[in-house]
Amino acid sequence: MSFKSINMLLVFLLVISGCSSLNKLNFFSIQDDINLGKQLKQEILSNPSEYPILSRQNNASAYQYLDGMVAEILNSNDFQYKDDFAWEVYIINDDKTLNAFAAPGGYIFVYTGLIKYLDNPDAFAGVLGHELAHADRRHSTNQLSRQYGVSVLLGLLSNGNSQILPQVLASLTTLKFSRKAEQEADKYSVIYLCDTQYAASGGAEFFKKLQAESSSRPPQFLSTHPNPGNRVEDILKETNQLNCSQAMTSNISNWQRFQGAL
Ligand SMILES: [Zn+2]
Predict the structure, then answer these.
(1) Is residue 8 situated within a structural domain?
(2) Residue 160 belongs to a domain
(3) Does the pLDDT value for residue 24 go beyond 80?
(4) pLDDT digits over 167-191, tens only?
(5) How far, in Å, is the centroid of ligand 1 from the Cα of 138?
(6) How far apart are CA 234 and CA 88, in angstroms?
(7) Measured in angstroms, how far is the CA atom of residue 186 from the centroid of ligand 1?
(8) Which residue, of 71, 73, 126, 253, has the fewest CB within 10 Å?
(9) What is the pTM (predicted TM-score) of this model?
């Protein structure tokens, strides 16, 4: 085989493996995800004008509700890094932003705008499951390395306090996941929620509401989590295939109390 054809074969193999798997091309170790996530979290917590995080101290009941929901979802047997990642959740006090995002290593950030928008806990649990999946399936380090290149991120990790960190953080909140990553996150949201009191198809409620309202201004969630097509249909199909419940929570008073506390 000539040098050229070996090169072609390598390109072909890279393309194939890039399409077939989301995780095989992740150059980061689990510890890298943990370290990068920690750095990003610190950066977020030290920038309250951009990220006005509600303190746990002053919002104990809201966090108690939220932590309870996260713990229930994490109870699923389908997490890969349940014991490795931090799984901390923070509420950002911004009623205008309809979004949530996940940093590597299990740091989840949800905006009050998203919480107040949703009519029931099942829809919110669906979005939470989706974000937890982005962290557990390590979509963020995949996507960040695509954006910055592996060497930049590895340099960031080895040098500690790098100047590029704020830039990486800024892009994390506007990070566009691939459609494949979105499909996987939607699918795992169903898998996780199947073991909870919430409708496994909860995420579909969120997308249904977005579609029904189809405002002129697309919500931030869809700009960072692109719509991979028949999202609602796919979630319902997955729920049926796995024989999971689609029954929505009937008593939503705790959910409304949570919303009212924010
Ligand atoms: Zn997403």
Answers:
(1) no
(2) yes
(3) no
(4) 788 777 777 888 889 999 999 999 9
(5) 12
(6) 29
(7) 8
(8) 253
(9) 0.87
